[in-house]
Every structure is written in C-alpha cells, then in structure tokens.
Design brief:
51% of the residues lie in helices and 6% in strands. A four-stranded mixed beta sheet has the order 2-1-3-4.
C-alpha cells in the first residue's frame, strides 16, 4: 500500500498512528505530495486532499476516516472502531467531533495567512466559535474513555497536537479544560504519538 502524505497534515498523522498501533506500518510505503486540486495528489484523489491510500490493486481510498476504517479491517488485534451497536455510533460521533475541531482550526489558520485586508472577521469568529465549542465537548468526553486505545483517542490526540503545532500563538486550548489537558499529557507519551509528531519543513 502507498500513502500519499504531507508531514504536517493532522489527518495524515491520524492514519499514521492507526497504522503504528495496529502493526500495519511496515506494509505501507509513503509518497510526499503537494495537496490541492492542482497538486500531485489530485492524480490519486480528485478532491486534491491528503491522506490518500493506494491499495495493492490500484484502488485509492480517502479520507482519513475511510482509510482508518480500512486499516482496522486488516489487522487481527482488538478492533479500534466498534463494529456495531451504540458504541459504534458514539465512536463515529466523537471522531467527527475531533475532525470538526481540526477543520475549524485549519480554516482559522488559513484565514490568518490571507492578506489582512482580505480577511473576514465574521468568518474567523464563526470558526472560533465552532473550535471552542468542539473543544469544550471534547473536554467533557474524555472522562468516558476506557483504557484500550481506539480511533477516537487517536483522533483527539492528533487534533490537540496540531493545535499546539499551528495555533500556539492564538491562545492555549488547555484554558478551562483540565480534563482534556491531563488526558493529552498521558496519551501523547505513547510511542505512536511521539513517532508521528508533526514537524515544520526544514
């Protein structure tokens, strides 16, 4: 399998951590590409987004949630995503919550890179509201996490790590969220988290 990736993408990191935790990392090669509809990744994913996973038969899977579900189907260990029932829907909802927090954070970050006279204060305020409401919900959710690692916990870790990486100058997400902050300290010490930490391009 071949993973189209960028070293700073939180969604790529989610797939990478999933592969490391399920022991599938040695079955995946990587190809660094430029994201965007005009970038190299568009040959694999017409949306121009990463990650994209090319299977051995040539089929390409995207986005991160789909790829992680596929990887979970391949390994023989305990599943990282519940297969059915209420636990499955709760897990998918919490994954979507953390993904949505990342979406809002990324949109906020991208808006900050536009020329100042082209930025929309209303757009920034909207993303800030979604970002902070999602973080509050994540803070409330971590108390329900059980000991075995799962995709929800991976996604929470990836989101919080990206916020530290890209949004550290815009305030600390830890403020008034002690449960989330404490959980992150412990979880981010996992080998898969440390091995996949985002790094700015040299």
């Amino acid at each position: 399998m071949k993973l189209y990736y960028s070293p700073t993408s939180p969604y790529v990191r989610k797939v990478t951590m999933m592969a490391l935790e399920t022991g599938l990392d040695d079955k995946i090669s990587t190809l660094q590409v430029m994201a965007g509809p005009a970038g190299d990744v568009a040959k694999a994913n017409p949306l121009g987004k990463i990650p994209a996973l090319e299977l051995d038969d040539g089929q390409v899977l995207f986005d991160s949630a789909v790829i992680c579900e596929y990887l979970d189907s391949l390994h023989s260990g305990e599943k990282m995503i519940p297969q059915s029932g209420a636990k499955r829907w709760t897990a998918l909802q919490l994954q979507a919550l953390a993904d949505g927090a990342m979406d809002a954070g990324i949109l906020r970050f991208m808006e900050s890179k536009r020329p100042e006279d082209e930025r929309s204060a209303t757009w920034v305020e909207r993303q800030n509201l979604a970002f902070n409401q999602a973080l509050d919900a994540m803070d409330a959710a971590v108390g329900s996490f059980s000991k075995p690692i799962d995709l929800v916990q991976i996604t929470f870790c990836v989101a919080l790590g990206w916020f530290d990486f890209r949004l550290s100058g815009d305030g600390d997400w830890r403020t008034d969220r002690p449960a989330l902050a404490d959980w992150y300290v412990n979880f981010s010490a996992r080998p898969s988290a440390m091995a996949s930490e985002p790094k700015a391009p040299a």
